[in-house]
């Protein structure tokens, strides 16, 4: 085991393989992947389209299951969880940031951020407090009652980040979080993620194909044809 | 809370489709409730006809007054029964009547209408105290004066006060209009029983109605008379007799109406299914997102079912509200059990409001079942757009 793994790993993958059947042929997206992510890391996974980086993120998020291998995230062996247990596990441990923000159009910024809290036992007042804190943290305290269509792309993504952190998850997973943003908005989001990592100690795994985005992370790993390129 | 807001806003976001679906559901509920209202209005009208303290006597085997025949001698003995109330003027509270069905050409439109005519005597007002003269006066015995029920006065221009009705080759002057609390009597014309019997060559009465001193004693009274070999009569409580006369028509209204409702509801349910399916298709990414956030398949199922139930609920309220506008609207039709023209109204009860809304919620639920299940079955990765790269 490497030194990094000794420092309380949040994620550890062992011999993870993911294959799909497409048109009768088996396609390997991830091949025999093993690595660990220590707590408090801001990791960027890079790779071209089709390299399997989103699949890898989905496997860590527990929204996709590997064909074989073992995935332990936040101390839980994911392959042992039933679907319902996995959903509850996700709610507690994973904050997910989507490339296309994926806000619910009929809900306001505050309501979108409140969504994950609907799965907790917090009181209404506690939920409102959490939502306010999260939106303040992303600099949108004055946009609480705006609907997604009334926000810019950058603002929408910041609401997306607020939604990912509002329930104080163990880890934030971001799938091309700046992929749809202009340079300036992208920088804002990356700064925000870096701050969350630095100031709140959040473990962040970000998938990107943008080298400038990846540079903001503490650690970069390249995924090529389903194989992770080991650090030099 | 957030879930209901989410469902409501989604319905509002697609308000044109929502409104169209609502109209479909509302229409079915409207028809459903209107039919219930109509059948209930009919039963209510007939059930109000007569007084629970009265017994009506018909000849044995006769189902209605039209078929019944009671001789003058027989009615004399029957009226002398001790169970019958004696009025202040020492008269017995018993009225011997003949009932006739006439076809009359309406003067205004020239159309044929059926008219119920009753030969009676003024004691009828003592036997049925809920009846009251609202205009004019009661007929003078031995004359061709008549009084008409309020519905007859409304439907026949020639049946207004001081006008003349022509039937049985004689002219009958309308001297009064009476009201019978929306009962079947409101659709009748009453006059002197002896004049009517002469005019229509009758020697026997159709029925005799008696006011009982002890209304609870009716079963015993009935048993005694029906088993007495001197009389060949059947005894019924007056309202039960009249209610029974509308059974056939009420059943026909219900059966036809429910058949229509079932056929329509299939359309409305399909409409709800299509609306909800479109909603699911449109919100696939949203479903994937919610599942990623930790919502379970069961949450998704609930959210979409809630939405279709709300759709049904709103449609139900719309339909019931529309049906409520019919409340107290009166229609006139032929009661096939008696052949007489009968006026009765739509009548809404709280029970029908509940049934209508429940029916709509049920349609919404059934309509939403398949799309909601499909939404719940979606795999997260597929729902999010299958970005496996």
TrEMBL record, chain A:
Coiled coil: none annotated. Its EC number is 3.6.3.-. One of its GO terms (cellular component) is membrane protein complex. The keyword Cytoplasm does not apply. Keywords: ATP-binding, Hydrolase, Nucleotide-binding, Transport. It is an enzyme of class 3 (hydrolase). Residues 11-230 form the ABC transporter domain. Belongs to the ABC transporter superfamily. Macrolide exporter (TC 3.A.1.122) family. This is ABC-type transport system, ATPase component. It comes from Nitrospira defluvii. The lineage of its organism: Bacteria, Pseudomonadati, Nitrospirota, Nitrospiria, Nitrospirales.
From TrEMBL, chain B:
The keyword Zinc-finger does not apply. One of its GO terms (molecular function) is transmembrane transporter activity. Keywords: Cell membrane, Membrane, Transmembrane, Transmembrane helix. It holds the Pfam family MacB_PCD. One of its GO terms (cellular component) is plasma membrane. It is a multi-pass membrane protein. The chain crosses the membrane at residues 20-39, 258-280, 300-326. Residues 259-379 form the ABC3 transporter permease C-terminal domain. Residues 18-226 form the MacB-like periplasmic core domain. It is found in: Cell membrane. PANTHER family: ABC TRANSPORTER PERMEASE (PTHR30572:SF15), MEMBRANE COMPONENT OF TRANSPORTER-RELATED (PTHR30572). This is ABC-type transport system, permease component. It comes from Nitrospira defluvii.
């Amino acid at each position: 085991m490497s030194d990094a793994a000794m420092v309380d790993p949040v994620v550890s993958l062992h011999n993870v393989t993911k294959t799909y059947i497409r048109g009768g042929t088996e396609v390997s997206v991830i091949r025999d992947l093993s690595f660990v992510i220590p707590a408090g890391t801001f990791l960027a996974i890079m790779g071209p389209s089709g390299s399997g980086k989103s699949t890898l993120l989905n496997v860590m998020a527990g929204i996709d299951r590997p064909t074989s291998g073992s995935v332990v995230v936040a101390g839980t062996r994911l392959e042992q969880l039933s679907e319902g247990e996995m959903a509850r596990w996700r709610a507690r441990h994973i904050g997910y940031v989507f490339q296309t923000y994926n806000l619910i159009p009929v809900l306001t910024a505050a309501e979108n951020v409140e969504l994950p809290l609907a799965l907790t036992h917090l009181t209404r007042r506690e939920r409102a407090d959490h939502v306010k804190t999260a939106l303040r943290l992303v600099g949108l305290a004055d946009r609480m009652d705006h609907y997604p269509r009334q926000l810019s792309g950058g603002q929408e993504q910041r609401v997306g980040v607020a939604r990912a952190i509002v329930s104080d998850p163990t880890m934030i997973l971001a799938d091309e979080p700046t992929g749809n943003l202009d340079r300036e908005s992208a920088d804002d989001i990356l700064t925000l993620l870096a701050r969350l990592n630095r100031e709140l100690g959040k473990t962040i795994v970000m998938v990107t194909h943008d080298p400038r985005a990846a540079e903001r992370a503490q650690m970069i790993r390249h995924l090529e044809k389903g194989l992770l390129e080991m650090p030099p | 809370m957030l879930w209901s807001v989410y469902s409501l806003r989604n319905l509002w976001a697609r308000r044109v489709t929502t409104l169209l679906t609502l109209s479909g559901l509302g229409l079915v509920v409207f028809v459903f409730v209107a039919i219930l209202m109509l059948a209930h209005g009919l039963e209510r009208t007939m059930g109000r006809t007569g007084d629970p303290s009265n017994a009506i006597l018909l000849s044995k085997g006769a189902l209605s007054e039209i078929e019944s025949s009671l001789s003058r001698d027989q009615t004399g003995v029957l009226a002398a029964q001790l169970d019958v109330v004696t009025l202040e003027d020492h008269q017995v509270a018993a009225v011997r009547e003949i009932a006739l069905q006439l076809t009359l050409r309406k003067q205004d439109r020239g159309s044929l209408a059926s008219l119920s005519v009753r030969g009676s005597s003024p004691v009828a007002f003592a036997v049925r105290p809920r009846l009251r003269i609202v205009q004019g006066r009661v007929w003078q015995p031995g004359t061709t004066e008549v009084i008409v029920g309020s519905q007859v006065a409304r439907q026949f221009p020639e049946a207004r006060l001081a006008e003349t009705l022509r039937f049985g080759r004689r002219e009958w002057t309308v001297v009064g209009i009476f009201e019978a609390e929306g009962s079947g009597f409101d659709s009748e014309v009453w006059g002197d029983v002896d004049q009517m019997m002469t005019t229509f060559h009758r020697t026997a009465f159709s029925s005799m109605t008696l006011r009982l001193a002890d209304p609870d004693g009716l079963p015993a009274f009935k048993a005694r008379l029906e088993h007495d070999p001197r009389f060949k009569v059947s005894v019924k409580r007056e309202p039960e007799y009249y209610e029974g006369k509308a059974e056939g028509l009420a059943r026909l209204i219900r059966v036809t109406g429910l058949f229509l409702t079932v056929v329509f509801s299939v359309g409305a349910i399909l409409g709800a299914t299509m609306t909800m399916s479109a909603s699911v298709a449109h919100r696939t990414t949203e479903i994937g997102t919610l599942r990623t956030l930790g919502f379970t398949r069961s949450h998704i199922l609930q959210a979409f079912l809630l939405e279709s139930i709300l759709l049904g609920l709103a449609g139900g309220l719309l339909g019931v509200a529309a049906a409520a506008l019919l409340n107290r609207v009166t229609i006139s039709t032929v009661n096939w059990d008696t052949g007489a023209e009968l006026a009765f109204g739509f009548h809404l009860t709280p029970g029908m409001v509940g049934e209508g809304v429940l029916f709509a919620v049920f349609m919404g639920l059934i309509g939403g079942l398949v799309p909601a299940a499909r939404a719940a079955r979606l795999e997260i990765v597929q729902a999010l757009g299958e970005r496996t790269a």
